[in-house]
Amino acid sequence: MSCTVPDPICSDVAVIGGGIIGLSIALEAQRAGHSITLIDPEPATGATFAAAGMLAPISELHYQEEQLLALTLASAARWPEFAARITAETGMDIGFRATPTLMLGADAADRIALEDLQQARLRLGLEATRISIREARTMEPLLAPHISSAHLLTLDHQVDPRLAAAAIQKQLLAVGAEREGRGADEVLIRARARELLHQDPTDTASPVIGVVLDDGREIRAPEVVVANGLGALELGGLPHHLVLPLRPVHGDILRLRVPEHLRPLTTATVRGVVRGLPVYVVPRNDHTVVIGATSREDTNAGASAGGVHQLLRDAQVLLPAVLELELCEVTARARPGTPDNAPLLGRVEAANGTVIPGLLIATGFFRHGVLLAPIAARIITELLAGVRDPAFDHFRPDRFSPARQHQESA
Amino acid sequence: MTQTLTDNDALLIDGVALGSRLIMGTGGAPSLEGLEAALVASGTELTTVAMRRYAVHGEGNTAGANLFDLLVQNRIRVLPNTAGCFTAREALMTAELGREALETDWVKLEVIADEHTLLPDAVELVEATESLVNRGFKVFAYTNDDPVLALRLEQLGAAVVMPLGAPIGTGLGILNPHNIELIVSRASVPIILDAGIGTASDAALAMELGCDGVLLASAVTRAQDPVRMATAFRHAVIGGRLAAQAGRIPMRTHALASSAMEGRADF
After folding, report:
1. DSSP A233
2. Average pLDDT value for residue range A151-173
């Protein structure tokens, strides 16, 4: 451990934010031998609590986002082992399912749009197959007979983010206790981070040496990871020149229970485009399904009646039996959106071009937090070990900052 | 050459000269960065934003994070709209929200009849136009391609009348060119074709029919390459405008050689 003073709290790495990203980074860093302090007043209650947990880079392909595709593919490839190891360490099933995804069109225009996207997938060498509607309905007999097209994506899987977050948290505390003899309240600090602590308190570009909490307590750590999603906007002490262009993109998402006589509603993840709008139905091991998700950039953080209406209306076009389910939960959360839909991930350069020691950023994961958690954890852990892979420079957190943009245009 | 021909051809609305006759919408863009690039490529100087769908104020050190920041940075004027309103009452409240948040009297008035067609509700539209004009708004009235209704909206004080080419988001083009021509021929306020545009030739046709401008969103934002499509529309609107001013030849049943007999050597 880097510091032996009993007060303030000390560790090798402080991670601000206990969503799936912060948790995964803390887990991977702890596995690499670092002692960890995770700071979050309510871990895994933000976007992670809402997320459906689709590990679906291929069905989420969008035109002109090849850089992001490379990152999502790399992370999806890591998920099977990432999940297996968590389960082996904790004995907890985190709902990882290597089941396929069906991508369906509802009307003739949806069929054309999805066929265009299929051509783009084939050009990129992605595994996706057009199948007949009869074949799709043989796989999933409850699919509506009148859908217009079907594609089978065998590599797009899923995990249950709530179970994954709970398991990771359990593991962090267990290792903290066994390896370092630290109590749960030392490993997981249930408080809000107020600001970063700098070596030179007057200079936000000076090395980061810790975190000040809302209640005034100090956490000392030679490395601090900012992984608190939209919360980064309210965190003090970030370098003045660093622009983190995050915006809340609200999403409504539903959880429903499948009555016994309709089980399974579906075994594959069913996604579709219904009159131009995306919708998905993700089946869980516990006989529930997750139906999502809207994308709203309005000011309503609460669940939207219109959003719930839209999701049920469109989901029942693909799976009419959806209307027979028990509606258990309506959740709305904000995703941390960025201008290019890609995360802000890595170390930060000061205006003079030198890297600011002690500071790592991992936010802006937008729609892909769960999917990107293993690769984000890997990238940050390598940076902690002094290894920077230039393949990920595209996602550097200062790419929207004025100094950085100036350098690039020069 | 194109530049010179269109230089003195600004679209005048409420005393404001717009250099581009292409008005853009923002819905359906896959990313903020992609939207910005497409707006710049389109050359638009006026862009409409749904007040019900976008939060005006960002927070923190986030310059460029939000749609409105992006428009301000690119010096694009914002035209708030009432998309998603089904009654005159909702439209009024949404328009007031836009005026307060964005400090503009301009409003694009949309009063939609139903979710399935997204067609304007003529009765509510007339009522909302009258009320908004009385409250000092400059109303850009989104309407059906009905020449009677279009003229009525002008008489009620609409600053701009915006007939649809086809229902929103359908990309079906201009379904009733004759009606659009008729609306234009009777109007003394700017007529801007709004909704239904699918590809560049639709926009050129609108301009050839005599429209003063074209408003579109999905055709660009949902295209596979939005920047390329925005560029296509910039050229199409200019091309259609020039063609409308240039005086086209009449359509004939029988062929007429382009090299006529006059001036030839007489043997």
Report:
1. G
2. 97
What is the distance in angstroms between the Cα of A243 and the nearest Cα belonging to chain B? 6
Residue B238 burial (10 A CB sphere; 0-12, 13-18, 19+): buried
* Shortest CA gap B31–chain A (Å): 6
* Torsion angle defined by CA atoms of residues B187, B192, B198 and B200, in that order, rounded to the nearest 10 degrees: 100
Question: How many Cβ atoms are within 10 Å of B198's Cβ, its own excluded?
Answer: 19
Sheet holding A208-213: strands in order across? A9-10, A218-220, A208-213, A193-198
| Residue B108 annotated among the catalytic residues of the structure | yes
Q: Given CATH 1.20.200.10, say whether it is the number of domain A9-49+162-246+341-409.
A: no
Residue A7 has a pLDDT of 65
Please tell me the distance from the alpha carbon of residue A103 to that of residue A105, in angstroms, as a whole number.
Answer: 7
Contacts of B150 (CB under 8 A, 6+ apart): B143, B161, B163, B183, B186, B187, B191
pLDDT tens-digit series, residues A25-34: 999 999 999 9
Domain ranges of chain A: 9-49+162-246+341-409, 101-154+247-335
Residues of A in contact with B225 (CB under 8 A): 63-64
State whether residue B198 is helix, strand or coil: coil
- How many alpha carbons lie under 13 Å from residue A319 in its C-beta half-sphere? 34
Q: Report the relative pairing of strands A277-283 and A288-292 from DSSP bridges.
A: antiparallel
- B238 and B9 Cβ atoms separated by less than 8 Å: no
Record the pTM: 0.88
Burial of B12 (0-12, 13-18, 19+ CB in 10 A): exposed
Give all domains of chain B, ordered by start, each with its CATH number.
2-246 (3.20.20.70)
Q: Domain A101-154+247-335: which topology?
A: D-Amino Acid Oxidase; Chain A, domain 2 (3.30.9)
Residue from the list A62, A244, A299 with its beta carbon closest to the beta carbon of B61: A244
| Chain B residues with CB-CB distance to A400 below 8 A | 64
Among the listed residues B71, B22, B18, the one whose alpha carbon sits nearest the alpha carbon of residue B49: B71
